[in-house]
Fold this protein.
Amino acid sequence: MAARALDATGVAELVQAATAAPSMHNAQPWHFRCHLGHRTVEIRADMERAMPAADPERRALHVGCGAALCNLRSAAAAAGWRTRTDLLPAAHEPLLLASVRLTGAEPGEETDTALAALAEQIPRRHSSRWPFAEKPVPPADLTDLVEAARTEGATLVFPDAWHAASLLELVQDAEVRDAETPDRAEELARWTHPWPDTADEGVPGYAYGPRRRSGTAPMRDFGGRTEPPGRTSAPFETALNIALLGTAHDSPAEWLRAGQALERVLLTATRAGLVVSLTSEALEWSDLRALVRDPLTDVGQVQMVLRIGYGPRGPTTPRRPLSEVMEIV
């Protein structure tokens, strides 16, 4: 496929796809600077959307921006572009997380067709906080998810039933700690909107899902002490399909790789008819994060916990307008 011209409309389409990525509390901590003349898109951290209490090292911020980077690369490939990505390209600019150079395919070369094929899943992917069916995921689909993570330089493993069940206790421990830590509770309150409003950021009440009445699914309860109107409770699954996404090391570059791997796994899951919810509460406390790691697997540093299965696709959560997240220079 011949690459289309990179004009203001074309780059806006790429950024629009990028912003569909998940981020902690849907804070959308990214800003895109687009250099049309150089065919380059820069992804920068938006520190006004950082969470110094729950994410002091900005690990989750980097993971979210990495997920947006994967979407940008996927949309670019679908539009006929080849991409060259540099992570953390300027040591003197710590907020510059990635630079993506777009080039046309040379004779005999093609774009990343596998990544391009996932682009149509970008608007369909939504986190689901609803109960999943008590149904195993076919081994072939699990293999595809593992390969998606590996392609982006990360590892996806499936812990045994005992370790998966222990994650619920770690999540509950983290939730108690969060509620008892004022600055973390204030951060969560800032990014959740239980009542209907017009916010274009954060987690709206309609996306909380039901409160867990029973089951062992590890999930963050965004309701807390303030329930959205009409929220109900429901039994959740007890046969868990839990996956740990990890990297060999723990650095800003690895966090960005983890974010790209996470989004590639999510898009692959969406294509297979699977739904996913993300769980990071226990990863936000250093001592609990060490316990999340499964000693029976080769994951070095766990970057995200995924709950995978069959169930209702989650609703679309709001996104900031492009005028706020991108600039063309």
User: Anything to note?
Assistant: The first helix runs from residue 8 to 18. The radius of gyration is 19 Å. The mean pLDDT is 93.
